[in-house]
Structure formats: structure tokens, C-alpha cells
Amino acid sequence: MITDETSPQDFVNDRKGNFSHILGWGIDANVKNDPTYPIKKRNNDEHKGYTWDRPALQEETVEILKSVERPNITAVYGTSKPPKGISGLIRRFAYKYSESSYGRWLPLIVADRVDMVEGVFEDFAKGHVPNIAKEVGLKSEWKYNKQGFLIKAAAGIIITGVIITLLSSEKKPKRIDV
Asked: Would you give the DSSP letter of residue 128?
């Protein structure tokens, strides 16, 4: 298995076999047929793998979410926005699943949307009123996609109206007269 802890032996092709029956097999065996000839200085050591001194790992100063497929963290990772709040809870949940799973990617998409809303609340908490219309690009949407803008606006108004209607319609409990 190739991990961050690799050695040249991990890259050695030790499959011995005659593959000459495959059309084009060994086409690069002739040095003069190599597209890099004569610039590249060839030697047979290049087939033994690559060796390097592993650089120092990035320091962990915040919580790092790690894939379940990896035994350790990657050499470099982003720390500009560590998981926090409700979006962080959703991200921690998502990282319990495989990278090929909907259980991983759908919650991460939801977490991004929740993080956006949390950011608006953080702006208000700091005394900054965000210009949401500008941030979501409504001016350019109106300029370049008027039909799409109007459809989205109508859908938003209808959905908001339905929600307000459902929330404001109080069901009065039936009175029982004795």
C-alpha cells in the first residue's frame, strides 16, 4: 500500500513476464525512439523509484478532519477555516463516511450552506451589516440572466408565502361545551 510513508521499494515493478504479444509493448525501449532523446540523460536507476527526504509535516494548530481512507493526515492541509458551530458538527459527521459515499458529500454541501448563514450571523454580531444582494451577485444575475432571475425571485416569493401562511394559520383547539 502506498501511503505517506513510502520507500523506493514501493515503486519497483517486479512483475516479470513476456508482454511482447501486446501491440506497442516496449515501444520506448529504443533510446532513439524516445521523444526526450538526446536531451534527457537516461539511466536505469530511474525505474527503481523515487527517493526523497520527507519535509517536516505541517504543524497541527487547529482541529483537522481526516479521511477514513487515510491512516494519517496529508502532508499539507488547509487550516484557514477549521470546523466550528453547526456546520462543524455536520462536517465531523460527514468525515465518518468514505470519500465515495453520498453520506460524505451531501452533508459537506449542506455544511457549506449552513456555514454561509453562520457567517451572516457573525457579521451581525460584529456590527457589520452584509450586503447580501451584492455578495450573491444579484446585479449580474439581473444583467445577464433576467429570465432566470425572475423565475428564482418568483419561486422565492411563493415559497416564503407558503411558509408564512403555514406558520400564521393557527389551528384553534375545539371547545367542548359541557
From this structure: -
